[in-house]
Amino acid sequence: MLALTLAAGASLRAQTILGSTGGYAVMAGSTVTANGVNTFTGDLAAASLAGAGSVSFGSTGASVGPPTAQNQTDFTRAYTGLAAMPGAVDLSGQVLGSGGVVSTLPPGVYKFASTAQLTGTLTLDAQGQSNAVWVFQIGSTLDTAANSKVVFAHLVGDSVTNDGLFWQVGTTTVFGSNTSFEGNLLGGTTLDFGSGATINHGRALTGSGQTITFAGNAIDFGSASSGYSGGLEFAGDGISLAAIPEPSTYGLIAGAIALGIAGVRRRFAAARRPGPS
User: Fold this and answer.
1) What is the number of alpha carbons within 13 Å of residue 116 lying toward its C-beta?
2) What is the dihedral of CA 219, 169, 83, 201, to 10 degrees?
3) Spatial separation of the C-alpha atoms in residues 89 and 134, rounded to whole Å
4) Torsion-angle region of residue 42: left (phi > 0), alpha (psi -120 to 50) or beta?
5) Where are the alpha helices (DSSP H) in the chain?
């Protein structure tokens, strides 16, 4: 029983809320416009391709094709779940990054009622957690200044697989030139990448009818089960999202189950002993 419980914990840690969209580095419900020289590690899904630039793939066997109905369903499920996560810290009106007010953030859920802006370097401090998760709920637009960065501090092993970083954006995202970004960007409408902007570990995803424009960019999703897409799971209702417990929590649960089983066995054995004659 203990082994089974621990195995279940390991399985939960490896899952992603992105479903079938987790295999894409880029997914647009409508058109992807590629200007300049672009490199994607991971598959590309788009209803159509446009632009005078080029797209190359850093991974063997990467595919290009339109998003499926399942892709759209999984995107909407993740997007809606992220937007509805409770307990968010309200950062409305504050600028992220070393050029703003909020330069370092621990794992948590953060909300912007309308626009979120990144200027300079934003440090996401995992604080040594094994399932560190950051969720940004942005009501309208996400804008980054040129040369902005998202970096991590105090990560532990397998963080690209087990940790989660999600940006849920209500409408438009605009990346300034040479922005160095991290995590999974789920856009409500258009995504516009400035020249040289990159997503180092993560994805650029939009839903039905939405577009993405590139201008000489690179995106690396890591693999279908990584790219900072972990750390969250759907609750029993299949809609609500919650953080996956730390591995140490699974150990405590497994220990409690093991103790419970031992107690039941002792009571059963005692009940079977013959009484005094």
Assistant:
1) 26
2) 20
3) 11
4) left
5) 2-14, 69-83, 159-162, 247-272
Nearest to 15, CA basis, from 244, 200, 263: 244
d(Cα 195, Cα 7) in Å, to the nearest integer?
Answer: 44
Q: Both tokens of residue 242?
A: 């919650």
Domain ranges of the chain: 18-243
Q: How high does pLDDT run on average in the chain?
A: 87
Beta strands at 232-234 and 241-243: parallel, antiparallel or unpaired: antiparallel
C-alpha gyration radius of the chain = 22
Residues sharing a CB contact under 8 Å with residue 259, sequence separation 6 or more, in sequence order? none
Kindly state the average pLDDT of the residues 264-275.
Answer: 55
166-177 burial by CB neighbour count: b if 16+ within 10 A, else e?
bbbbbbbbbbbb
| pLDDT band, residue 64 (cuts 50/70/90) | confident
